[in-house]
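Build the 3D complex.
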Amino acid sequence: MILTVTLNTALDITYRTAALTPHTTNRVTEVSERPGGKGVNVARVLAALGHETVVTGFAGGRTGDALRELLAAEGPSDALVPVAGTTRRTIAVVDESTGNTTQLNEPGPVVTPAEWAGFLTSYRGLVAEADAVALCGSLPPGVHVGAYAELVRVARAAGPPVLLDTSGEPLRRGIAARPDLVKPNADELARLTGSREPLRATRDARRRGGRSVVASLGPAGMLAATPDGTWRAAPPKAVRGNPTGAGDSAVAGLLSGYVERLPWPERLARAVALSAATVLAPVAGEFDRRAYADLLPGVVVTEQVT
Amino acid sequence: MILTVTLNTALDITYRTAALTPHTTNRVTEVSERPGGKGVNVARVLAALGHETVVTGFAGGRTGDALRELLAAEGPSDALVPVAGTTRRTIAVVDESTGNTTQLNEPGPVVTPAEWAGFLTSYRGLVAEADAVALCGSLPPGVHVGAYAELVRVARAAGPPVLLDTSGEPLRRGIAARPDLVKPNADELARLTGSREPLRATRDARRRGGRSVVASLGPAGMLAATPDGTWRAAPPKAVRGNPTGAGDSAVAGLLSGYVERLPWPERLARAVALSAATVLAPVAGEFDRRAYADLLPGVVVTEQVT
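Done.
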């Protein structure tokens, strides 16, 4: 099975309004809720691709209960660890007059040292059973900034490959623990390396400890620097839509390709096609299966020989 | 006891943000939750004034559970009727850079005819025990537009005086059922009567069926047209702050004055002082007890002889 870790899970709430006008009262016409957080989104896509998937991280309070109830109706298995605090809500307010989205993100529960220790015990057991591990998203308050580095080391000691998808200082420290794969976007890569030149920055990120580094470059596709070579992968055409979750779908594509032992060009093609099919899906964070099947054969993967 | 009815109760959530910027991701720094809806707010103030108070209306789903749990820690008794749908959330986003608030209001649960019938049975029993009844706020989806007229008639048949504080078509129909008191604000009164001249509009509202009509005129205080006379009541000084809940505090002032058999000028003075003390309170919807005690003796009540 594939294990995804989401330390700061979220109940993702979407509000539709005719128009969002600041400093007034806005009537919400439609409310929907979904279990969220990056690793939960990755797990949903992996399950849709037919992979046995287990979700772990923290969940607590009424929003944690709501998240677990909604997760039980989806594909992944629930190995979330209870926490005394309350799982955060994220609210996406979609303004129907413009199509724009305003996001409000709660901070998340404060995790105590005892809760972190309890999570580590559970994580060690899950990692021993896993074919691959994905560590995704931000850290909740109270969790130490080197948490991902610690989780990378546990996974490396146990054996399965570990992918890291986070940002800022947790990424900087996590990459130094030598994860098998990191998947920064262009902004995260620039913050990490100080370079906005993708090829240079991706190679720099490898020197910092990432065995393979796959940078997601938005509509331009992906750039992968690996021990086997360096590739660019681009979608057959530019797609327009909602990019929410596109990066999580790319992670699912890379991980599924890894456990299926696909060569790098095929993993990248899958990641790029899933990502574009997520931008095209009518519901944020889902992927359009037909678009995925249509796009996959057209992804252009080019080896970079420099 | 005093019974307050809130058909569309709410879990009131307040978010603090450094600045709310539309079409971006906004980090919420502080989250607080409170049981809400206009009748719940009225009951909170009545309980703070020392009155035995019972809250009814509908509550359902996880947000309904959260509301009831928070209500249990406050003064009023809980006689809310369960509903299969989910109680709405309201979100007040306070932008700390400007102090402005952006409000997002969910629509509320769809109430079925069977749930409405169950509520009516419960309401009949509660009204028989009540010294006064307050009907407050908007109607949730599914409840018929003449609902307040129906609740006014039940109260009038049972005996206790009934106050109506709503707007639009539910007010128009409710007032025709001859409630003892209606408390529109200036906008609601203008929509009801077509007149922006408060004295004319207040008297017109009496002709439409309100035995007494007390119009809240914001910082200018209140105007009351009653069988005993017509009065204006004005606060001793203009107050600046958050007007959220000021109207609900005024309702609590009027109702408590009624059951204590105060003459109209004293009821109005109490309503105006409570309303101003709510504007001055640091937490939206609470009232500042010291400000209330300071303001009360200074409220100027003038009889209108025309």
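Chain B has two domains: 1-143, 217-306.
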